[in-house]
Amino acid sequence: AIGEVSVDVPEGKMKFLREQGYVNKELILGIRPEDFHDEPVFIDSSRGTKVDATIEVAELMGAETMLYSQVAGQEFVARVDSRTDIQPGQKLELALDMNKAHFFDQETEQRIRPVGEK
User: How much is the pTM?
Assistant: First the structure.
């Protein structure tokens, strides 16, 4: 969950979290800006991994636009194609690529890695 927003975690990610004892524990979720998507084809295929956001700042950076927003009080930045016309105050549905999500221990803030990964 992101605050009060729940997102589905792919089974492969859930498996390595369970194997390391992270069952019924709160974790920190990390998503890189490039792993948010506003493309309709991605949104339509992303059941359980979407968030509704109100854009606070849209910063055009040439070929891409950086979107600054919050979901359930958690600030985030999304990087989308600059051809998408987005204005501050606009509501936007974004899909998260949870296959690229990173998880961190709530207490130590260390990244939780699959066994054998460096």
Answer: 0.83
